[in-house]
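Minutes, project check-in
Item: structure for the 300-residue chain
Input as provided by the requester:
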Amino acid sequence: MRSACAQTVDDIEVIIVDDASSDGTAALAKDLAARDPRIKVLSNESNKGPSGSRNKGIRAAEGEWLAVLDADDEIAPERSQALLDLAAASSADIVADNLRLERSDGKYVGSGLVQKKRPYALVVSPELYLRQNRILKDRFQLGYLKPMYSMAFLRKENLFYDERIRIGEDFDFCLRALLQNARFVITSEPFYTYSIREASLSSKLMRESLETLIARSQEVRGAYPVHGESLKKAFDEYDHFLYRALAFDSFVSDLKRGAFSMALRTALHQTEIWDLIVQNGPAAFYKRVRKLRGRSGSHR
């Protein structure tokens, strides 16, 4: 919150959405609001998840641009002004910056997009956005970026988050904006510090989440006209990597429960996961065998 309030842009509002927290978050937020008139606190009576909370913020927002800042992240003081300048220079409806990646202990681990000697800008089409969100394939997925949206565009298109989604919600929201002809421009300069936490929901691939993403992809295809062979191929490729991740999840799950024959069957029938098995499978297999040996030894 301090980083949000420290923006060099003077005319801002800061909306805190407390998602029915059970700790001292709500009290702290209200204390901050009492000391800074730019802060507005909204509270959910029950847990709505990220999508429901974002929608509550969108409906309450009075500004011309909307930016999402997750609770464990922070932004540089010049971020808002830099993105507003980028939007003005590029006539964009959506603008975003690079991510500065940090571990929970504060150690810098790199940036999301590749940084070069000179900053650069990137115009993102729906095809590029889909192709740069291939699960278990890309070094970095564009869906992790935290864009700033034109409120005029969101209102014109009546665009909100799908509240059924609790993982990949930012990707889904941005993709639908692009399919509604939004112009999206990214700068390679990192003004947003993204905290990487091993236990975070988005850091783990769960079968239910993958199945939700697959179902959602089909819904989006049905709801928005997919014109052109290039966009259709991009959707097909995105779906392919979701199914690939689902197959690999099955392989790992079988290893964890000691069903080695089933894991082998999955590997033989799903050849597209062989590269993932080479990268991760041997370690998982060895770990599981050691665990089983330890159990058998304890019963002797």
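Outcome recorded: The two ends are 57 Å apart (CA to CA).
No further action items on this chain.
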